[in-house]
Design brief:
Rossmann fold; UDP-N-acetylmuramoyl-L-alanine:D-glutamate ligase; ten-stranded mixed β-sheet; seven-stranded parallel β-sheet; 19 helices; 39% helix; binds ligand NAX; binds potassium ion; ADP-dependent NAD(P)H-hydrate dehydratase activity; EC 5.1.99.6; NAD; EC 4.2.1.136; isomerase
């Protein structure tokens, strides 16, 4: 974002002051469109806003909001944190324009928070360290929100709006900076500019920010000059099938474990098939054949006793994607993973295939290659990358704080393959530092995904896409999106078995949207 702004300003086609004006206007528009009642007149008195303005350009946006709200007849109170004389130039200019309209009070010291809307313009992307001094302010905001605001003579606040990010949240990691004082506060609305920041999607960001509104401030022409290596995961046009033989869509091999514990691998296999792999074979120890034969139709079944049998099976070069992990068993995983990786095919490792190497990650890393994908949840991640997990768990003391994205990138570099770190804020990274965020948060939340077997289905979907020749990063990112989209489509009551069965609906909708676009 900063690189995009700099590129825009260096082009001299737009000034920082213009961007700030668009940002402030966007905030006002978002407030008025979110709560249409503010467009009409108040039953008693005028609508009232209190704007808390900080020492940088976030504060500058706040002064613009103050001016624009007062122009539509709001009663506006401005409270500043820091010395306005030391504001950066654009923010200073907007402070000075506001001063011709109204006074600027001091935020520290006695204050009465009394407003329909409180706008937090204290800190945005520039926050680098906690602001302990502001603790009592956030306590007051919390109390005032509990109170609500019922009219000119009552104290309290009705709604809390953040400009760009809730102050105290690190925009790069989504983590509250240690000692950040807004604990317990949840914003009603956060208005950000150009694109969502990483901090809106990861860790504490989604919950704290509340509803997120993105305002276009005209930076798109300069976007390509920015670091574009982090993209949101989403649908991919290649998900649609356009003819071809079943072998043109790949053959996935899912390896399962012993008798009586086959459910996870069967879920993965069905998900791989539903994701469009041409063929899927489940390879299980001979003693598990009867159980699986009774439960499978379109998924093929093969006896696969040991490393030798796997080596033999992989002589068939049409088997182009392998999935190991779901209910594989730790012993079997330790035996089969090196053989599978030695074949050099697209290979996904999940669950037991990761836990089998707890405490001896190098034994795994030495076999990994660029066509492999690891899909750990946080526990599995900690078993393979204990130091990175510790850094994630440590309190965030400074911004930019160590984020899930940093952790995934470092893990991918160390492992030499794509790493997908699961969670509501799934992140995916490659050894070269490319990254995707598949955040099922805020309006895209999929809370019913927190159910047994849902990770096995994800492993199957990604394996299916690998079989369809998606590159590891694309398979992981598109797979994570498909998985969450299926859950959103199904809604409440979802269990893992439902996920593969709802995929056809997701594909049908993508087809329909593509036809619409094609006219
Ligand atoms: N740069 C641009 O072109 C635009 C910036 N905009 C706004 O500008 C914001 C970023 O502005 P700034 O970079 O000035 O940063 P902020 O306004 O977020 O922070 C202000 C300054 O406070 C200092 N600071 C950091 N932590 C502190 C602490 N704990 N205690 C005291 N001071 C601390 C930093 O040095 C920083 O420069 C964005 O979030 C956005 O709201 C918008 O106006 C859109 C355009
Ligand atoms: K803010």
């Amino acid at each position: 974002m900063r690189a995009v702004e700099t590129a825009a300003m260096e082009s001299r086609q737009v000034t920082g002051l213009e961007l700030m004006e668009r940002a402030g206007a966007g905030v006002v528009k978002a407030i008025l469109s979110n709560w249409p009642e503010y467009r009409g007149t108040r039953r008693s008195g005028r609508w009232r806003a209190t704007i808390l303005c900080g020492p940088g350009n976030n504060g500058g946006d706040g002064y613009v909001v103050a001016r624009l709200l007062s122009q539509v007849n709001w009663e506006v109170t401005v409270l500043a944190y820091g010395d306005p004389a030391r504001l950066p130039p654009d923010a200073r200019a907007n402070h000075d324009r506001w001063r011709k309209i109204g006074p600027v009070g001091r935020l520290l010291g006695p204050r009465l928070l009394q407003a329909d809307v409180l706008v937090d313009a204290l800190f945005g992307t520039g926050l680098t360290r906690p602001v302990d001094e502001l603790a009592p302010v956030f306590e007051d905001i919390h109390a005032a929100l509990q109170e609500g605001f019922s009219g000119p003579n009552s104290p309290g606040i009705d709604r809390l709006v953040a400009i760009d990010v809730p102050s105290g949240l690190d925009a790069d990691s989504g983590r509250r900076l240690c000692g950040a004082d807004e604990q317990g506060l949840i914003y009603d609305l956060t208005v950000t500019f150009h694109r969502r920041k990483i901090g809106h999607l990861l860790a504490d960001g989604p919950e704290l920010s509340g509803r997120l509104h993105v305002v276009d401030i005209g930076l798109e022409p300069w976007q390509r000059l920015a670091d574009d290596s982090v993209l949101p995961a989403g649908p991919d046009a290649r998900l649609q099938k356009r003819g071809g033989h079943k072998y043109d869509h790949g053959h996935a091999l899912i390896l399962g474990g012993g008798a009586g514990r086959g459910g996870a691998a069967r879920l993965a296999a069905r998900a791989a098939l539903r994701s469009g792999a041409g063929l899927v074979t489940l390879g299980v120890p001979p003693e598990a054949l009867p159980e699986n034969a009774a439960r499978l139709d379109a998924v093929m079944l093969a006896p696969l006793a040991d490393a030798q049998a796997l080596e033999q099976a992989l002589r068939d070069s049409r088997l182009n994607a392998i999935c190991l992990g779901p209910a594989l068993g730790l012993e079997r995983a330790r035996e089969l993973v090196p053989v599978a990786l030695a074949a050099g095919r697209a290979t996904l490792l999940d669950a037991d295939a990761l836990s089998a190497f707890a405490g001896l990650p190098d034994a795994l890393f030495s076999h990994l290659h660029e066509r492999a994908v690891l899909t750990p949840h946080e526990g599995e991640f900690a078993r393979l990358f204990p130091d990175l997990a510790q850094r994630l768990a440590a309190p965030a003391e400074r911004g930019p704080a160590f984020s899930r994205l940093d952790a995934a990138r470092m893990a991918a570099a160390r492992a030499g393959c794509t790493v997908l770190l699961k969670g509501p804020d799934t992140v995916i990274a490659t050894p070269r530092g490319q990254a995707r965020i598949a955040a099922a948060v805020g309006e895209d939340a999929a809370p019913w995904l927190a159910t047994a077997g849902s990770g096995d289905v994800l492993a199957g979907i990604v394996t299916g896409l690998l079989a369809r020749s998606f590159a590891p990063l694309d398979a992981a990112a598109t797979g994570a999106w498909l998985h969450a989209e299926a859950a959103r489509r199904f809604g409440p009551g979802l269990i893992a078995e439902d996920l593969p069965e709802i995929l056809p609906q997701v594909f049908r909708r993508l087809d329909a949207e593509a036809s619409l676009r094609a006219g």
